Amino acid sequence: MRAFTLIELLVVVAIIGILAAVGVTTFSGFQEKAKISASKANFKNIVKFISLSYSRCEIDDKVMMNNQSGVSTDVTSGFCNNSPLGACHILTAHFKSLKWKNPFTDYYIKNNVDSEYALHCSNSGWPSKELVSKAGYIFITNVSGSPKTMRIEMRQDNDYSGNWSKRYSRKDIIIP
After folding, report:
1. Strand (E) positions, 67-123?
2. Cα–Cα distance measured from residue 54 to residue 58, given in angstroms and rounded to the nearest whole number
C-alpha cells in the first residue's frame, strides 16, 4: 500500500486554496449584483405603488396605507391634498411598516433603525442627509413649478466612475 508524500499533499492543498480564492471572489461579485437587482426592484415597486395611490386620488377613491405601527388607515386627505414632501412622510411610514430595507446593509448606521429602511424624504435631516449618496436608498423630493411633481431617485451601485444614467434611477410623478 502506497501513501501520499508530503509534496503531493501540499500541491493538493494549494490547488484547493486557489480554487477557494477564485470562488470567493466570484461569489462576492454575485452578491453585489444581487443587491443592485434588489434595489432596482424596490425602486420600481415603490414607483408603481405611488403612481397607483395618486391615480386613486384622481378618481376620488379612498387611499389606504399602513401607519408606522402597521395599522391600515385612511390617508386620503393627508396624501392627496399635500405637497410631495408632505406625502413622503406618509409613504415612508407605510414602507417602514412593511419593513422594506436597503439591501446594502453595510451602510446601516449603528443604533439607528431609520438608516435600514429603503425609502426616505429628502428634507428629513439626519440620517437621510448622510445616506443620500449611498447605493440602494430611495429618496423623494419636491420639484418646484407647475404641475406639482414628486421626484423619486436612487443610486443603484457604488461605482463612482461610470455614466450617471447607468448609476441612478429617477422617476418623476405628476401629482393630480
Report:
1. 72-74, 119-121
2. 6
Q: Per-residue pLDDT averaged across 144-165, rounded? A: 75
Q: Which residues of 29-62 are buried (b: 16+ CB within 10 A; e: fewer)?
A: eeeeeebbebbeebbeebbeebeebbebbeeeee
Sign of CA dihedral 110, 117, 67, 140: positive
Residue type, 108: Y
Q: Give the cell for residue 49.
A: 405603488
Omega before 176 within 30 of 0, i.e. cis: no
Q: pLDDT tens for residues 102-121?
A: 999 988 999 999 999 999 99
pLDDT-derived band of residue 65, with 50, 70 and 90 as boundaries?
very high
What is the spatial distance between Cα 102 and Cα 99, in angstroms, rounded to a whole number? 10
For residue 145, give the C-alpha cell: 413649478
Let me know if 103 is exposed, middle or buried by CB neighbors in 10 A (0-12, 13-18, 19+): middle
Collapsing DSSP states into helix, strand and coil, what is residue 41?
helix
- Cα-based angle 102, 107, 112 (whole degrees, multiple of 5): 85
Residue 21's SS3 state is helix
State residue 138's pLDDT score: 94
